[in-house]
Design goal:
The protein is mainly β. It has no helices and 11 strands. The chain has 2 domains: about 50 residues, no CATH class; about 40 residues, no CATH class. The strands form 5 sheets. The protein has a 3-stranded antiparallel sheet with strand order 3-4-11, with no helix packed on it. A hairpin with a 2-residue loop joins strand 1 and strand 2.
Amino acid sequence: MIDWDGMFLFDHDNCAIFTGWGAADTVYGAESYLLGRQACIVGIGGYRIEGKNGYLKWVEKKFDYENQFGIAVGIIKGEQKSKYDSKDFSVVAYRSARTNVT
């Protein structure tokens, strides 16, 4: 991890390497993304169970004449890439060329 001018840069071994960029399909490279601080917005809904607020719904039930036991967990959640005034300011794609390493 590198702190560069207020941005944290991470390296990752599983970055996709592309072939076939350019007009003649001879440019090799990789694509990186810079994500802003508010690039993603997360919303969590809630349940109201027995007068209490919570975001998880937990249900336990016995089946087969109380011979088997089951649990179900539910959550209301969503993620969205942020946009302001119908414009996207959250993600910048950066493409870099490289030599053909085989």
